[in-house]
Design goal:
It contains 12 helices and 14 strands. The chain is of the alpha/beta class and 400 residues long. It folds into 3 domains: 70 residues, Winged helix-like DNA-binding domain superfamily/Winged helix DNA-binding domain (Arc Repressor Mutant, subunit A, Orthogonal Bundle); 126 residues, ATPase, nucleotide binding domain (Nucleotidyltransferase, domain 5, 2-Layer Sandwich), CATH 3.30.420.40; 172 residues, Nucleotidyltransferase, domain 5, CATH 3.30.420. The strands form 4 sheets. Strands 5-4-3-6-9 form a 5-stranded mixed beta sheet, sandwiched between helices. α1 packs across α3 and α10 crosses α11. The protein is globular, with a radius of gyration of 23 Å.
């Protein structure tokens, strides 16, 4: 039970009750389509008159629609309700240091259009590129009403939408929300990529209904951690909760973009793997004799699949360090589920047993955390960006 914050609270009103009932109805329809008004009343426990008023409002606003006529033992045959996934659209942005992917999806997180372009080195140029992309999407799908934009970022943003910590992006502190809303003109929600992925697993993942404690670990240029504890996203002071990628493993290790040395992501990220493959040891020293241009992480994955010894050793070392960090998360947080997001999951047949073995060796045996690799084909980071907008319409309203 949460303590009421008497310095910042909101008194519940009749409108609060309406909002709660409305979102209950939306979620029941989302999880059990199609269904009649009578079924909705039975499942929700609301009066039929209340259900009728809510459904009428949702139909008028375009959130749900009436479909086929259902069966009835007697009386008038009911019209079945389902989400209007073809009307409401969500713009999603996966911002990464090297590339940006933009998608247009329905409220069911199914994408109808996508594009990718190199991430500009300046925030203003990024905003201009994004504005052009959004204009093209809207022109191609005039029938879709954009309900908002979700952006997953490789760092942390505060409640005002200011980018406060993103060392791998290299933009410094910038008022990103103000910049983008001015250029694009749609309401937007920004969140750390790992936190967005954790939310996506809660809303769209195939996990048991009782999962309330979930951790998402994103492995890319760096390492991010999203925390869902007691069903709530944990942001911490200054929105910095989850930066386990910048926990120091070795003070004499490789320098990190955060200004320290030997952070976890310097040993277990994609960039760490590339550096090792190209000749740099985890302690910062170099192998002799390598002068070839560095490969991409995807190249190392392909080489390992083709039985290249150095590529295989690189992935094995990366998996070992991933397991070391994850063991700390499992022991300290005891999540029911821990999901791993990133290209590395494409080699799960190789790295999975290593990660799970290290976690088992280094964490408490009484903690039964299920470690799950996400399917790269589902584009979990982009789906996470969609979820940021979905939860604003389907999640519980903020009340004291």
């Amino acid at each position: 039970m949460r303590k009421i914050d008497l310095t910042n609270f909101q008194v519940a009103t009749s409108e609060t009750a309406r909002q709660i009932n409305r979102r209950i109805a939306l979620n029941i329809i989302r999880r059990n389509p199609p269904m009649s008004r009578a079924d909705l009343a039975r499942r929700s426990g609301m009066q039929r008159s209340t259900v009728s008023a809510i459904v009428g409002q949702l139909i008028t606003e375009g959130w749900i629609t009436e479909g086929a006529v259902g069966r009835s033992a007697r009386g008038r045959r009911p019209r079945l309700l389902h989400l209007n996934v073809e009307r409401a659209g969500i713009l999603a942005v996966d911002l990464r240091p090297e590339t940006t992917r933009v998608g247009l999806a329905g409220i069911d997180a199914r994408f109808v259009m996508q594009t990718t372009w190199p991430t500009p080195r300046k925030p203003a140029a990024f905003a201009e590129n994004l504005a052009r992309t959004v204009a093209a999407f809207r022109k191609a799908h005039r029938e879709i009403v954009c309900e908002g934009m979700g952006i997953s970022v490789p760092g942390r943003v505060d409640q005002a939408g200011r980018l406060v910590f993103a060392p791998n992006l290299g933009w410094g502190e910038v008022d990103l929300r103000h910049l983008l809303e001015r250029e694009i003109g749609v309401p937007l929600v920004m969140e750390n990529a790992a936190s967005a992925c954790a939310l996506a697993e809660l809303w769209f993942g195939r996990h048991p209904e009782n999962v309330q404690h979930l951790v998402a670990v994103t492995v890319s240029e760096g390492i991010g951690v999203g925390l869902l504890l007691n069903g709530q996203l944990v942001r911490g002071g200054d929105a910095m909760a989850g930066e386990f990628g910048h926990v120091t493993i070795d003070e004499n290790g490789p320098p990190c973009g955060c200004g320290k040395r030997g952070c976890w992501e310097q040993y277990a990220s994609n960039l760490a793997a590339v550096r090792y493959y190209c000749g740099q040891q985890p302690d910062g020293s170099a192998h002799a004799g390598r002068t070839a241009p560095p490969p991409a992480f995807a190249d190392i994955m392909r080489l390992a699949e083709g039985a290249d010894r150095r590529a295989g050793e690189t992935l094995d070392r990366m998996a070992t360090y991933l397991g070391m960090g994850i063991a700390g998360l499992v022991t300290g947080l005891a999540p029911q589920v821990l999901v791993i997001v990133g290209e590395i999951t494409g080699a799960w047949h190789r790295v999975g047993p290593i990660i799970e073995g290290v976690v088992k060796k280094r964490s408490l045996s009484r903690i039964a955390t299920t470690i799950v690799p996400t399917d790269p084909g589902t584009q979990p980071r982009l789906r996470g960006a969609v979820t940021l907008v979905v939860q604003q319409h389907f999640g519980a309203p903020h009340v004291a």
